[in-house]
């Protein structure tokens, strides 16, 4: 038997003003994307915004359905749109926010796996910025959010 330890570094911003100008713009766009959400059942709107390697920012909001669990989270809506329309432009960073924003918004387990899948497909990590009303936490790769991700 071999005992191992998993750990990672992350950045915590006590204020959104501490984010770089580019990351603050991405956080703002994630909050803007909350307005694109369709969440009449949970009333919990989530928005995601991603900066591509060419500088373009794409956005998406969560989409609910009365046929639960047929809805889709904002992160996956964004990632599936990206794969269908811009797969040759890697995602460099992705911010996720919510409305109401009582705490930092974090991707669910399915979204974490889909983010890892996207990283593996594009061959580069995606910085994930989890945004709250007054603070944010950043990790350098989705794999840090899901250390024992599924692999084929």
Structural class: alpha+beta
Number of helices: 3
Fraction of residues in β-strands: 15-25%
* CATH domain class name: Alpha Beta
Pick out the low-confidence regions: none
Terminal-residue CA separation: 24 Å
Please estimate the helix content. Answer: 25-40%
CATH architecture designation = 3-Layer(aba) Sandwich
Shape estimate = globular
Question: Could you explain how this protein is built, in words?
Answer:
- The chain is α+β, with helices and mostly antiparallel strands.
- It has a single domain, classed as Cytidine Deaminase, domain 2 (3-Layer(aba) Sandwich).
- It is built from 3 helices and 6 strands; from the N terminus they run E-H-E-E-H-E-H-E-E.
- It has helices at 21-33, 74-85, 109-122; strands at 11-13, 45-52, 57-61, 91-99, 127-131, 136-139.
- The chain has a 6-stranded mixed β-sheet.
- Strand 4 (91-99), helix 3 (109-122) and strand 5 (127-131) form a beta-alpha-beta unit.
- The radius of gyration is 15 Å and the shape is globular.
- The mean pLDDT is 95.
Layout of helices and strands, plus pairs?
Blueprint: E1 11-13, H1 21-33, E2 45-52, E3 57-61, H2 74-85, E4 91-99, H3 109-122, E5 127-131, E6 136-139
Parallel strand pairs: 4-5
Antiparallel strand pairs: 1-6, 2-3, 2-4, 5-6
Helix pairs in contact: 2-3
Q: Could you list some keywords that capture this structure?
A:
3 helices; Cytidine Deaminase, domain 2; single chain; 152 residues; alpha+beta; globular
